Amino acid sequence: MAKSIKFYYDFLSPPSRALWLGLKLSKATFEDCPVALRKREQLTDEYKKINRFQKVPALVDGDFHMGESIAMTRYLADKGQISQQLYPKDLQARARVDEFLEWQHLNLRMACGKYFRDAWLLPINGIAPKPKADKIDQYIKDVETNLELLERFWLDKGFLNGDKLTIADLFGSVEIEQIKLCMYNVSEKRFPKVAKWLEQVREAANPYHDFAHEFVNKKSKQAAQAKL
Amino acid sequence: MRPIRYYYDLMSQPSRALFIIFRLSGLQFEDCAVALRNGEHLTDEFKQKINRFQRVPCIEDNGYKLAESVAILRYLSAKGKIPEQLYPKYFVEQARVDEFLEWQHITLRITCALYFRQIWLEPLLTGKTPSQQKIETLRQHMEGNLDIIEQVWLAKSEFLTGSHLTAADIFAACEIEQTRMADYDVRIKYPKVRAWLKRVRQSCNPHYDVAHKFVYKISGTGPQAKL
User: For B128-162, what is each residue's pLDDT tens digit?
Assistant: First the structure.
């Protein structure tokens, strides 16, 4: 038997969680290789040999090394490690999933990623002060512009691409889960479809979803309590 | 079956990339130019009938509408419309091209686009020019990614993902060419990028120059011109 694929990831990274969930739900066999971002393990020379871009997630399959979660998803799907339900084989159904995956980079991911980085990651590590209130408002506004697009265009059938979970839902929802760390919660009143969808994704991806989000959920709860 | 309808504007980087790829592939398409400068993508008709996100590029293939340039590339490739040379069928080679296409969004593309937008486009629309400090920050962010192109992607090969031209090179070149209009000359600091851009243009011509006619005109720099 061929050696299994090594999967390098950290649960603090949203794309790492999305792909890990995709692998687990597909019952893939892979070697679990956690990389502790909090210890900056991704910046070591050793890790540079794994992924020249020094980011997670990444994979090593024999001599083949690659990064970029969505490119990895496609590679793993071709190797039969991501199920057809999550990443369809049918041409037009797959293109719909791809359309979301390509769209999210400069929209949902960028807005949530910036908010997370500037309001949580940098201040908590003492790299930058906590942004001022008007700056935070701007981050939230950018996030909500994207939530509104999700609400209006993507969620008519419960999931992003129809009535079943696909890898697009995983990549989309983990970005929104991440900003719980900034104590942002999606308003059921303003974004009813998004709020419901997040819950449906969680259910469809459990028990793995709760496992992958343990740190995010724990930290965001602590932060909420500290505020009380 | 009628040919696909292609909605695009040559001022948009991914629009140019697909335009060049379609021409190189000999793909028949109905030419549906959308003048962004006239706000043609913002009309209700465009939103309802063509692309709900009101952006270019997008396509319509006998009733099936699709946006997002990279998704369009993959869809047409899966339909056998794009030669393997440009977007490999073998999954390991395809993964290398995909790795670049996924990498570029929040690195090369966003930083080049912001440089262009804030230094050329916004002043044109608002009459306000950005401060020197702002320009400097935009340049640093962009050059951080140009460094990676020069040192990592072009470290060992003639093209971004190997020894021949693929869609990855075309998408990247179109982003970098955009900065000409904001008077940036990538060739000064980046010898490998300079030589690679020349190879990309040669491999894509005459279509490359057709796609970049407005870039050349607005920047006042033809492909031969010394900046």
Answer: 999 999 999 999 999 999 999 999 999 999 999 99
Q: What is the pLDDT of residues B41-88, one digit of tens each?
A: 999 999 999 999 999 999 999 999 999 999 999 999 999 999 999 999
- Does residue B205 lie in a domain region? yes
Residue B105 to chain A, least CA–CA distance (Å): 6
* Total number of domains in chain B: 2
Among candidate residues B20, B47, B78, the one where a domain is terminated? B78
Alpha-carbon distance B226 to nearest alpha carbon in chain A (angstroms) = 33
Task: Choose the mutation target among B102, B111, B141, B154 for the interface with A, i.e. most A CBs under 10 Å.
Answer: B102
Nearest to B110 among A68, A106, A153 (CB): A106
Pure H helices in A117-158: 122-124, 133-149
- CATH code for residues A5-78: 3.40.30.10
Integer Cα distance of A49 and A44 in angstroms: 9
Note down the domain range covering B48: 4-78
Instruction: Report ipTM for this prediction.
Output: 0.95
* CATH number of the domain residue B38 falls in: 3.40.30.10
Alpha helix locations (H) across chain A? 14-25, 45-50, 69-78, 91-104, 110-116, 122-124, 133-149, 167-178, 192-205, 208-212, 214-227
